[in-house]
Amino acid sequence: MSPRPTVAAYYFPNYHRDAKNEAVHGSGWTEWDLVRHARPRFANHQQPKVPLWGYEDEADPAVMTRKIDAAADHGVDAFIFDWYWHDQGAYLARCLDEGYLHAENRERTRFALMWANHDWIDIHPAKAGQVAPLQWGGAVSETTWENLTDHIVARYFRDRAYWRIDGAPYFSVYELFRLVQSFGSVAGCRLALDRFRAKAQRAGMPDIHFNAVVWGVQILPGEQSVKNPGELVEKLGFSSVTSYVWVHNVQLPEFPVTDYAWVTNEAAAQWGSIANGFRQPYHPNVTMGWDASPRTVLSDVFRSAGYPFMATIGGNTPARFREALARAQAWRDARGQGASVITLNAWNEWTEGSYLEPDTINGYGYLEAIRSVFGRAGAAAG
Fold this sequence. Notes:
Helices cover about 35% and strands about 15% of the residues. The chain has about 375 residues and is an alpha/beta fold.
């Protein structure tokens, strides 16, 4: 059997007060407001989801201390923080900067950044049949790029708890096509990534482990230098690829509920086909569930009308989640990838129905499923 993989869970940091959110939604607003007010939208729909730990402030180091202990005790080696920096500056940063990095036990796990460089639109909540208004664009100027990469190297990469693979800090990018758009061409983007790499090397690191989240449209319209995502990843110099969530790659055919076992089969069938499209290692993703209905306007009819008015995943019990984890482990072992990575969606995507944190229905069941397959944490240090 291959060595234990690094188990890395995505973390969505919108459960603390942020000045930009308050300018739009009012004083004290966090995404917990949507979680609290969620309601059943169809027969046998289990909403609202209620966190066992309560509606905590993730920017509080004591709160993050409990999350870190729960993660390490149950086999989660690393948090991959959804990290936001637009031309307007940093966003949703207090969770990591004030919470995680000041937790007394923070070195029990590792952390890394996934630059969530997508357009930020107002879906908090979203109205059916209307285009959600754009708040901040995902593409950035070269000045912004230089500022944010300076900040990453100085603030995060130097930290002892930052996750490294073969000594190189792991840095993931959510939208490749948006990254290329920022610099106008594949060649221009590669130069920008090389400048980032050089900054890390000057700071004493051997390299950056660039990871690409591959889904959806990954090539800009009219782009002539590459013909497919695999070629794009190669030309940009990325080290690995992965997925963020199953619904990026698997369409849910049954509305309002598609069964978790069916989705698991479809996702597992795609691990090989996705991996075969790239020369770089592919880190399979296991998703705990899906239900974006808390992000819908509750007075609107819940109909299939595009995100977040879309099908949910049902029957995602801890036992079935454990089976999905075991399949990912078996797939990884069969491919002989060694001590690779399995990503999980997600530690706390409460308003998308994909969270590992304990709730009042299943308790610690999803975390216990991780530990039963992989054991306790301990593989992320690199």
